[in-house]
């Protein structure tokens, strides 16, 4: 048992309050820094704990690290028969919490690991390692930041060492990345996640385990964890190399965790409970708008309103009298079910046609797909969900290909009047509408283009276009979070009513 109890004060300022965990003579407490009036985490150690000196030295070394994504150490001492380490109290959800409470998108999980890799590369540059990377040590804080807990200190407390600490931490990042994108743990120890499946004794790749893992993340994970070359790239052997490989991953939005996707922060649209494609309202701007005008309520406007009302009443009366007179002078007409109207009906407006399916379309890429797991989000009628491309280093898709897109299967050939896209409010996207009877690029003919598309965009063919497949084809991508990415929140396909 611990030699200290709740209420104990260390260094005349840290008051121990709640015992969090206790194992092997080391106890973690939630405490209060009475001088700065803030919660802190305190490790204390029983007199029988064998590695007090190593822990204190490791904590003092860790206190010199400056990366804000690493737990800050405030104090470490062994005096008056009591050894302790004081560090910042981190509140939030660990990667383990996120993976066990609800599914997370592979790219969002990978973004957390990317932050950890950069922070760990900073620690390695200072000569410190971790050696105990598990999902519980990577935290998405309540303040919307990433924290990697326990650099140097965890290994000292647990008595861990390695002949090749750089390789050990690199493989640890690989295990975190595998867990983040699949929800399974590829390590020997029980960390609270289901074990990664094996295929004839060999670890299954992420895409074999979980549908929808982007190809580039599958390749990076194999390069780190399996130490195999993928996509013509060599294995990754240091945390810095892992950080560089993951630099393409969109980073989490710096805001508290929410069930709403980060893309909501990029636009201002109606919530899901409203029509995602509202008809423009004739109402005046809401009160407080900088561009709104005051409603006219003076005497002149009242007189004008009265005149308009009288004119409308006179017109209605005259119309009613004319109709009544004509009806009285018109002989009765026998009704016949086969007879048509005497005048032609107004032309019907195009109707919305629901696609049978949607998928990411990357015929020029390695795996011929582009985030197909998100494709249905572009046709679900919700503005809070989206399909997006991978991220690229330039607007021209990193000069890797001439285009990428989302293809819709309409189930049968239809005539396309137009399509309406909901895109981010970010300039720079170039999109084409292509229509054809086969899901290959050569069969899909370009019928409309927009060279600087953003927000709500309508693409209308210049002449009649008919086909079973409708492709939205990005040839240039807009800026997104330091990189470039195409995003579609919703697509509506319109066809003539007679089609």
Automatic annotation (TrEMBL):
Residues 337-348 have a biased composition (Low complexity). InterPro entries: Galactose-bd-like_sf (IPR008979), Kinase-like_dom_sf (IPR011009), Prot_kinase_dom (IPR000719). Residues 14-304 form the Protein kinase domain. Keywords: Receptor. GO terms for molecular function: ATP binding; protein kinase activity. This is Protein kinase domain-containing protein. Residues 245-298, 332-371 are annotated as: Disordered. Gene3D superfamilies: Galactose-binding domain-like, Phosphorylase Kinase, domain 1, Transferase(Phosphotransferase) domain 1. Signal peptide: none annotated. PROSITE patterns: PROTEIN_KINASE_DOM.
């Amino acid at each position: 048992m611990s030699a200290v109890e709740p209420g104990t004060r260390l260094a005349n300022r840290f008051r121990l309050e709640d015992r969090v965990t206790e194992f092997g003579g080391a106890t973690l407490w939630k405490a209060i820094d009475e001088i700065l009036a803030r919660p802190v985490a305190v490790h204390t150690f029983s007199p029988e704990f064998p590695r007090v000196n190593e822990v204190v030295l490791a904590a003092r070394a860790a206190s010199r690290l400056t990366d804000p994504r690493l737990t800050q150490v405030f104090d470490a001492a062994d005096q008056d028969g009591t050894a302790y380490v004081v560090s910042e109290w981190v509140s939030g959800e660990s990667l383990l919490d996120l993976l066990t409470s609800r599914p997370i998108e592979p790219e969002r999980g990978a973004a957390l690991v990317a932050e950890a890799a950069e922070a760990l590369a900073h620690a390695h540059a200072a000569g410190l390692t971790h050696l105990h990377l598990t999902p519980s040590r990577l935290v998405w804080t309540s303040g919307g930041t990433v924290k990697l807990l326990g650099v140097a200190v965890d290994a000292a407390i647990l008595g861990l060492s390695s002949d090749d600490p750089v390789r050990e931490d690199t493989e640890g990042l690989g295990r975190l990345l595998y867990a983040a994108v699949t929800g399974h743990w590829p390590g020997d120890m029980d960390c609270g996640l289901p074990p990664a499946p094996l295929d004839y004794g060999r670890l299954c790749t992420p895409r074999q385990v979980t549908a929808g893992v982007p190809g580039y993340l599958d390749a990076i994970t194999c390069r780190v964890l399996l130490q195999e070359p993928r996509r013509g790239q060599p294995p990754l052997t240091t945390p810095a190399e892992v950080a560089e490989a993951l630099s393409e991953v969109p980073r989490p939005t710096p805001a508290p965790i929410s069930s709403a996707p980060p893309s909501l922060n990029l636009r201002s649209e109606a919530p899901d409970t409203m029509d995602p494609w509202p008809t423009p309202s004739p109402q005046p701007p809401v009160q407080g708008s900088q561009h709104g005008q005051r409603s006219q309520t003076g005497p002149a406007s009242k007189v004008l309103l009265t005149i308009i009302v009288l004119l409308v009443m006179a017109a209605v009366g005259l119309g009613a009298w004319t109709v009544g007179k004509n009806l009285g002078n018109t002989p009765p007409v026998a009704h016949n079910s086969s007879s048509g109207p005497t005048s032609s009906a107004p032309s019907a407006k195009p109707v919305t046609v629901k696609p049978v399916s949607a998928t990411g379309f990357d015929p020029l890429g390695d795996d011929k797909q582009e985030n197909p797991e998100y494709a249905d989000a572009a046709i679900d009628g919700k503005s809070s969900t989206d399909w997006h491309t991978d991220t690229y280093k330039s607007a021209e898709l990193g000069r890797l290909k001439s285009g990428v897109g989302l293809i819709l299967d309409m189930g049968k050939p239809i005539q396309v009047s137009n399509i309406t896209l909901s895109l981010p409010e970010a300039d720079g996207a170039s999109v084409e509408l292509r229509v054809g009877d086969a899901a290959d690029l050569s069969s899909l003919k370009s019928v409309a283009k927009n060279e600087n598309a953003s927000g709500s965009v309508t693409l209308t063919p210049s002449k009649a276009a008919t086909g079973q497949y409708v492709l939205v084809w990005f040839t240039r991508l807009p800026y997104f979070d330091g990189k470039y990415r195409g995003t579609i929140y919703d697509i509506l396909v319109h066809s003539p009513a007679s089609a």
